[in-house]
Amino acid sequence: MDESESSTDAFCFVRLSVFTLTCWMMAAQVQGLSPDGKILLEIKSSFVDIPGNMSNWLATDASPCSWFGISCLEDGFSVRSIHLSGHDYNLSGEISASFGKLAFLQELDLASNNLSGPLPKELGNCSELRSIRLDSNPLISGSIPPEIAKLSKLQHLNLSQLQLTGKIPIEFGNLKNLLNLSLLTNNLSGSIPPALGSLHQLSVLELANNSLSGPLPPELGNCKNLSSLILYSLQLDGSIPPTLGQLEKLRELDLTTNRLTGEIPPELGNCTSLTHIYLGTNSLGGKVPEQLGRLQNVKVLFLNTNSFTGEIPAVLGNMSSLTNLTIGENLLMGEIPPTLGFLRDLMYLNLYENNLTGKIPGELGNCTKLDFLYLPFNKLTGSVPPELGNLRLLSSLQLWNNSLSGIPSELGNCSNLRVLDIYSNKLVGNIPPEIAKLPRLRELRLYDNQLTGTIPSDLGLHSNLTHVILRINELTGTIPPGLCSFGRITILDVSNNLLDGEVPVDVARCPTLYRLRLQYNRLTGPIPKEIGQNKALLYFDASFNNLSGSIPPEVGLCTKLTAVLLSQNSLNGTIPSSLGQLPLLVELNVSSNQLSGSIPSELGNLSTLYELDLSDNSLTGDVPLELSKMSSLRFLNLNDNSLTGLSNIWSSLGSLQGLQLAGNKFSGLVHAEIGTMTSLQIILDLSRNHFSGQIPAELGRLQLLEYLDLSVNNFSGEIPASLGDMVSLQFVNISYNNLSGALPSSWEVLLKTSQVLGNPELCYSGRNCSSESPAQSPEGDGADSISIEEILGLVATVFAITLALILAGVFIYYRRRTRFESDESSAKLEVWCKDHKYRELTFQAILDATGEMNRHYVVHHSSSSTVYKASLNNGLALAIKVLNADLNHRLEKAYRMEVETIGKVRHRNLVKMIGFCEWKNLRLVILEFLSNGSLYEVLHGKEGQGLSDWTSRYKVAVGIAYGLEYLHAYCDPPIIHRDIKSSNILLDDDFEPHISDFGSATLRDKAHPNGTTSKVVGTHGYIAPECGYTLQLSDKVDVYSYGVVLLELLTGKQSLDSSFPEGTTIVGWVEDHVKTGQMVHELLDKAVLEPHDIQTGTEMLMVFQVAALCTKNVPAERPTMQKVVTMLQQVKEPRRMSDLMNTILGVGTSGVDTEVPIQE
């Protein structure tokens, strides 16, 4: 063939090809969209695409290959991958079964959307699938279809952070090409299938945060390519299989927060590729195996919260890559091995709460990268080693609760140090002045030691100090004036020392200081009037000093104050009326000073006041009628003044438990209305006045009263028989009156002779009515006529009264800790409550009151504890929380945490702990009994009554917020509750809320505010979203849970209401309705919102906005509880409604439209 013919043929072929292609394309256009394109349109119809990202999916196209999120094979028509992941896509709706028709689909990615419904089993028909990502769609529910196991080419399967239930299909063992299997954070149950051990290609297995139980299959040791085994927060039991030692490629092993027992298998030392080992929060025991020392690549060894015994192996010092060594909360003993000093990359060392002894090895000073050294709750001795001064990167040094004896000046070289906590040791000597020069020091806690010398004069001049707590030492000299130089200090506590001089003006007016404790020192001079410039001050205690001058009226400008304690000083002048402007004041004590003038009527404005003590002053005039407005008052002490008039205010003080009016000039009849104060149960002292007439028979109604003193008055007539029925009385004094007749027979065992003297007409056992001459009042002038018997009796009476007053003061104003040992039960009972009524509480009384823990007395039961109601013989009711008999380390920790948190804080919105008890293997927490049960029962229970109006629910919402604000902002260290829910909010007689159940709480380290936790804690429906994918811990988890409780109060729905779709929480339910255009007010509870009540509707919508902010997905976008309190306060103030809206908008809108009118 010649060249011309060849060219002609080639030309013809090209023309033919072009013609053929053109015809084919024309045919395609005639036929319309390709089959895969039509399938995609079916899939699109099942989605709700709010952003409109799928708007270019058009039926008029010939091919879907240019559509958003779609890629195709080379043929230009067959769909190879679908990528519609990411929060920006915001897809909702269900996953269509039509996905199963895409025969050539290799990759499916729908992660991080709002898809719901079940997983379609038809996915098992996509035989070419290599990768499935459906993670982070929290509304997808149902079980995992076993048909997925037919996908023989599948390499990546991620179904994490859904709401899947049921078991892991055993058929997954057929996925021989599987590399990654992630089922994190679902509700899967059953056991881990041993068949997964046949997945020899598997590299990543993540099953954490589910309800899987049973043993850890030894067959997993056959997955020789496994590099990451993540099984935290399950319910696995049994031992760790030694076969895991065969996993030579394993890099990360996380088995935290399970129920594993036994020892760590030494075979783990063969996994030389390991970089991270997490075995914390289990019940593992035995010794830490020395074979771990072979693991040169391990960076993190986390063995916290187990029961390991023996010594810390010295060979751990060979783990040269370690950056984090955490073996806290175990039973380790012996000394800290000096070989840990070889760990030059170590940044975090936590040996908290063991039984370690000996000295802190100076070799730790060689760990020059160390950032956090945490050794509290051990038995370490000796001085803090000076070598620690080499740790220039150290930011937190926490050595509290040991027996250390000295602070080296070399710590002043730790230029990065922010937190220095060596409190509750046996430190002696001076505070090194070099400490004051640390440029980044924020928190200094050296309290409860034996330090002497002066506080460094330049403390506060070189750093932004926020906490200085030096109480309970023997420090002398003055308070450094520069403590607030940088204007950041929040807590200053130098109480119980030997300090003198004046209160520095700059300290008093520090704008950030909210807790100022100066009590039990030798301070002199006036209280600076500049204290009124401090708008943050919450707690001010300067009692037991030598302060002089008047109480500055400017104190009334500190409107956040909850306590003003100035007793036992030399203050003079009048009580400022401005103190009545403190709306949050709980305790006011200015006793034992030289105050004069009248009691300001403005004090009646203190509606939150719990204790008022004005005793031992020179006050005159009448007790103001306005005090009747103090509805929260529990203790009123006006003893030893010169008050004359007494208004009848008693019927309004229905919560009063202690009333002391002794040593005044009150006269006339005692108001019978005092007998209506049936809450009066600790003390009633009317002694040393000029009361006359008969003792009111109404006093006999005070069935709970324990201490009654009517001595040295002018009472006459017979003692009313009703007083004999006061079954709780333990002390009575009626001496030096003009009483006649017989004593109540029940008093015979209570009264000594000195307590009845001076009543010549009174008959009692051993004395007839004529055996005593007419009585002379101890205040009379006829001393010559007093008999020897009366002189001796008077001395005894004065002694008895003095002793009783001292005891009463102790009962009422200082925490009383008494131990009782029961011979029968060997129970160790501690009563931590100042109320006099609890002083005789015994373990036997608790057993008797609960029928020896009979189930008929149970008021609440959970997997970890049982709560009994104990009705004591004296009429008191207690709640006895008993941790179950199979007490393990975790429950022991919960018990200890409850004692360490609620046992040591006090707030009107926190449940009050009376005491605790340890008996055999039981742990008892003794709490006040709150009669109206839990918020959950009242809102959702079949017999729940109350909270039927918005005002009551708003009161509950604000009360919970106050309690959480106190825990987060005003406790030191701050407390994160971690299990806020409606069933943990208890309601008293007035439906005032009290936060309870602190067994899951944790103390937040302010140096690491976003610290980590070893497990997910909380209740489904209330847990913040971040708890499912991170162990970062912050107070924002409580804020989220509080937002859920707010939604319950607003809607009347449960957090997981039966009316919701399966797996839907109240937060998701609200979001779904709002996204579909439903008015917010339609979600509000009609039981509290009348159709035409505009005011209530507006307030509920504003609180709804607060709830929306609290339940933001991103923790940083949630407000603090202090901000929440501010917003809730603005709800009830119409003039500040615009401020509330600005606050909401400043925090960040929720996307929920609440700017809608109430339907009329």
TrEMBL record:
Its main location: membrane. GO terms for molecular function: ATP binding; protein serine/threonine kinase activity. Residues 1-32 form the signal peptide. The chain crosses the membrane at residues 791-814. It is found in: Cell membrane; Membrane. GO terms for cellular component: plasma membrane. One of its GO terms (biological process) is regulation of root meristem growth. The keyword Coiled coil does not apply. Keywords: ATP-binding, Cell membrane, Disulfide bond, Glycoprotein, Kinase, Leucine-rich repeat, Membrane, Nucleotide-binding, Phosphoprotein, Receptor, Repeat, Serine/threonine-protein kinase, Signal, Transferase, Transmembrane, Transmembrane helix. It is an enzyme of class 2 (transferase). Residues 853-1136 form the Protein kinase domain. Belongs to the protein kinase superfamily. Ser/Thr protein kinase family. This is non-specific serine/threonine protein kinase. The lineage of its organism: Eukaryota, Viridiplantae, Streptophyta, Embryophyta, Marchantiophyta.
